[in-house]
Amino acid sequence: ALVGAAIGSRGMVGGQMEDLEAGAQVEDEDSDTPAAERLDRIHRHKTGALLEAGVDVAAVWAETDYEIRERLHDYGSRLGLAFQISDDLLDLTATAEELGKSPGKDIEQNKLTWISLYGEEKTRTRLRDIEKEMLDLAETVEGGRELSSLASYVCRRRH
Asked: 1, 23, 26, 53: least CB-packed within 10 angstroms?
């Protein structure tokens, strides 16, 4: 059920659909939802929902207690957001060889991204903050070293 919800209309599919609808709308005057709120919702639902569900499923399978499950859920939520923010940065800074696709499409299409709303410096700062939050959460659970490695990999990836 967790994975089904994560990939469905209220998860990855819905987030991707909203991302496509947002398209070339950095700020949509007709929308009641501010661009920052809309971007947060898109990022939390796209790949973010799937990564979060993966962590949640692992916590359920490991039969962790409620408190640890909540910490892992928080970690998974941040992991998904970090992946999406990192993706926005890579579109701006990576080469075609690193990405395996053409970079710069977000800017060309005037897409709603962290870069378009906050600029590169604030985006990098937010990604570092999220990485620290994940590292702090990882220290509180068994298997934290692996979770720390995953957090750093996602936040510092080059593809």
From this structure: 1
